[in-house]
Amino acid sequence: MPRTPVLAHHPIRTVVAALLLAPLVAACSAGPAPAGADAATGTRTKSADRPVTVQVVPNGQRARAGQPVSVTATDGRLTSVTVTDEKGGRLAGQLAPDGRTWTSRRKAAPGTAYTVAAATQSPGGTAGTSRSSFTTAPATLVNKVDWRPGTGTTVGVAQPVSLVFDRPVKNRAEVEKQLKITTSNPTEGSWGWMRDWSGRDRVDWRPKDYWRPGTRVTVNAELNGTDSGSGSFVRDYTTTFTIGARQVVEVDLDSHRLTLVRDGRTVRRIPVSGGTPGGEKRSWRGTAVLMAKEGTINMNSETVGLRDAYDKMVDYSMRLTWSGMYAHAAPWNSPYFGRANRSSGCIGMSDADAAWFYGQVRAGDPFEISGKDTKGVVAPGNGFGQWNLAWTDWQRLSALR
Known about the structure:
Blueprint: H1 10-28, E1 53-57, E2 60-63, E3 68-74, E4 77-85, E5 93-95, E6 101-107, E7 113-121, E8 127-136, E9 141-142, E10 145-148, E11 153-155, E12 161-165, H2 172-177, E13 179-183, E14 189-195, E15 201-207, E16 216-221, E17 226-227, E18 232-234, E19 237-243, E20 247-252, E21 257-262, E22 265-271, E23 286-289, E24 292-300, E25 311-319, E26 326-329, E27 347-349, H3 351-360, E28 366-370, H4 391-395
């Protein structure tokens, strides 16, 4: 019987094994990794992150001023932004929670060169920096401000902060947002807009009640870059002042007496003569605030619209309204002191009493004037007559309410 060769099947097994193994080898072998991919995992590396694109508004040369600086990141996020002007001053700003945008709190000022440095981070974590610059066009109009009280002064408890603008203020809310009052103790107060006696726009800040003596007050009018209207820009202003003793001047025109009250205590009573009843020579009533001690000045009745002109030098003059009401020495009226009202609208007293009183009072002291026959209450814009408004009425004069 012939033998069957056993080894005849070995090559077949070897080929089958090779065929079975071939796909497995092919599946596990790695070809060239794509650019930017990890050779072990095939994932994209940080080096392949696209750079973060940063856009700044405003931009270019002679850009429009009066708008916030806005920085926006595309394909990544901002980690910090610094905006600096040519003098080294910085525009503070706020970074959005998602890091996509940054916006300055103040607006770009006219005629200023700015440099913007933005630190960025790509989606893969790569840090970067973007730098750019822009210049704003100069202002064609500047809205100047006359403000009170002056820096470093000590004033009375009724003194408001007062800003009078040289040009009309159309964007009142935008201007008011930039006005900051800081006090050394908690003091509630509000801004109010009015027409000044001069016809110009004016905004005042007064506390709800008279100031607390000793209060230190700082006013920061951060207006540089604020368009008050029609391209009329306002500059920055700042002033600091202190509140003095609580002095209230009580004027009773019916009894013809002036009383100086300091810290709740009567210091002195003075006989006076107020405005003549029954016509245009009557005095104002309500609360008037001592605006300034002007000393010896010339008073001419024609400047306040009185036909029967007087023209004389008057000593110890203390201005109470823009319309011409003063407290002052009036020796020509001495027969009427303490007896009758016979002045042309002012509160007159003897030379001796006026000299003493002039040395006691200061700008900002309130004169609380009462009397039956007067020509009305002092208006807010006629000097500092805002104390004649109820607190809620005063608050309504704010542009932000």
